[in-house]
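Table S5 (text form). Sequence records supplied for joint modeling of the two-component complex.
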Amino acid sequence: MTGASLGDVILEVEHLETHLDTKMGLVKAVDGVSFSLRRGETLGIVGESGSGKSMTALSILRLAPRPAARIVGGRVLLDGKDLLRHGAEEMRRVRGRFISMVLQDPQTSLNPVYTIGGQIAEAIAMHRDVPRPELLSRAVAALRRVRVAAPEQRVRDHPHQLSGGMKQRVVGAIASSCEPRVLIADEPTTALDATIQAQYLRLLKDIQRESGLSIIFITHDFGIVADMCDQVAVMYGGRIVEYGPVRAIFNTPAHPYTQALLSSVPAVDRTVERLYSIPGQPPSLWDLPPGCRFEPRCRWAEPRCRREYPPVLPGRGAGDAAHSASCWKLEDPEWDNPRC
Amino acid sequence: MQRYLIRRAGQSLLALLAISVITFGLSHLSGSPVDAMLPDDAGPEEAERLTREWGLDRPIHVQYLTFLGNALRGDLGDSLKWRGSTALGIVAERLPATLQLGGFAVLVSTIIAIPIGVLAGVYRDTAFDAAGKLVALLGQAMPNFWLGIVLIWIFAVKLGWFPTSGRGGFSHMVLPAIAMGWFQVAALMRLTRSAMLEVLDSEYIKLARIKGVPEWRVIWVHALRNAAIAPLTYFGVIAGVILTGSVVIETVFAWPGTGQLAIDAIRGRDYPVIQAVVLTFAVVFILSNLIVDTLYAYVDPRIRYQ
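The corresponding structure-token record, covering 646 residues in total, follows.
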């Protein structure tokens, strides 16, 4: 979908903060994350493991693992209403109906002791007033929508009788059964074979085109980002370090971390001796420096990076106002930010 | 499903056969019944006559095959102590009392243990969880005969709330069932709790919540059926513990069941009756396990297709 035909803002996340109590101490897993999502838009959230991507997603649904995780600040506005102020029952009615989610590992996402049909039917029964006998035919229809062959037979199967790709389609059927406005896809294809992966992504896109669904796509695969996303948020150490349209992110990455990430993506049109890898380790989240979290690994680092966290500055995405990044270097008009 | 059940039934038959060999062997290790039966002043001819009459002079494998053949026809011989009764007849007469007490103990333990185990898992590391752990620890630390005596002393002798012993109405069952069942409560509760902890952490529970399933349904429908698999397996073990426990508990509470009968029969070297008790216990135990395996397949569809 191109930027021009995007609709109104559906979901707005403002300064979301989620803290985790761990044995090692307090972890600011999500530390002031903000973004907005429009109707029919796909936002990619990119980052390493532990950068806070999944925790952001779970916090939106208020399903971050308790009692360890607590949302301590911010707002999550769905059609202008703050989900963080919802009561338990009100929030339950949002889940699956307005915001839904597909998890990473299809092998463990389905309940092993119930039938496929039962699990889809339950998702529908939670939000729609459908008479019992009709539920199963709705489940069949949901399976057909995600292009599962012979859905009438499949509804009677148990999860262990299905392949991984098929299971992920079933999870997709469950997630989309109540026609939600927002679908969060948390690395939905990481556990799938490359060919199955491509099919699944196409399926998501088709569902999106038919229903005007907005998607938050969590991944660490830039290939998928290029394929699927309109907007991209790059996360590092619990914060969004760069945010902008997909084209700007790829063509003129503003943050050194994004530049480094893009440089470590293998490309078919380049021959390299060794793939670039970012030196150093991802930051330990319970001992964050006051300044930029990427500073210890950054080739452009200077003393103030260590002292003070950089403000959000406009990026250089060819006049695109929506492109921004948190890096002191952007204050310097002379700084040319090449790929590594 | 059918193949699974047929295979399990076949295994049960094999187990029964093995048990018949062990029973036969054990009762011969405990000394000759002839010595127990004869009065002190009887001569060696007298002993020899009885030995021949009971076939104890024949080769051991012939004795076993005779025993097995008779057993298959339901004939385990006549009691040596209770003249005029068949061994199996005496056991059959006493079995309902044992099954009643054992069944009651299992039922009550289950009704108490499963919900507490589930809630202890859901509210882990809270005061409720700690209290549950304490109950479990007590149950596993106290030997059942000692618990039985203490219960009688407090609730029957001192407080007079329950009868001290014997079989009668519901009130007669309470104390022996507690003495028998507390250990099971402890074991079941801990199994359920740890299974719940594991299941509640799983991705399919996360997906159930994502679907908008209310929390009570997530716990009692989605999580419990998965968490039930571990404690269910344990029910097979419980059947054994209850049966062996009955030997002790029925003696402490003078409960006229098979357990008490077993003690009497052993004291009198009434080995047809001993054999009948052991074989009956074995059949009950194996049947319980067969039922557990069937339920297991019902609860967990993955088993059905093995």
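Note: Chain A touches chain B through 32 residues (CB under 8 Å).
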